[in-house]
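Each record in this resource describes a single protein on a pair of labelled lines. The shape at a given residue is found from the number at the same position. The record below illustrates this layout:

***
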Amino acid sequence: MGLAVELSRRNVAEGTGGPFGAAVFDLSTFRPLALGVNLVMPTSSPAAHAEVVAICLAGQALGNYDLGMGGGNPTELVTSCSPCAMCLGAVPWSGVSSLVIAAREEDARSVGFDEGNRPPDWVDGLRRRGIEVTEDVLRAEAVEVLRHYVNEGGVVYNSSKTEEEQLA
């Protein structure tokens, strides 16, 4: 998780995207397969969230769309913030066997990000699919990055706040 939070921190510090970082790990070696940062603003792509970037790059690294390779080596998605509705949809389709999360949905919403509509039992839904979910790992550190981003004037795209609230 330290790597995912550091990726989010560096993405903000370098002005290369939003305050989110993610990594996919091969759990048999504990080595990262792919790293992802939020690239929504610099790529003008609404789908370029850190989790999606990491999942796509991991698939390329493995040469397979199934990151568990049909029951091969288990993989883990580690993310600096709870997945939004779009990223949540990508998790089970990716083939990862576990998801580790730092900041929670309410942390992202508290600084203005709109996380979309997720079912209230989304964690149980992933677990029913065989994906283990661990929350609140380095949560305080990840929340600090979210707040720093907003306090430094970072763009809160797809905001749950009105334009007037953002400018206040």
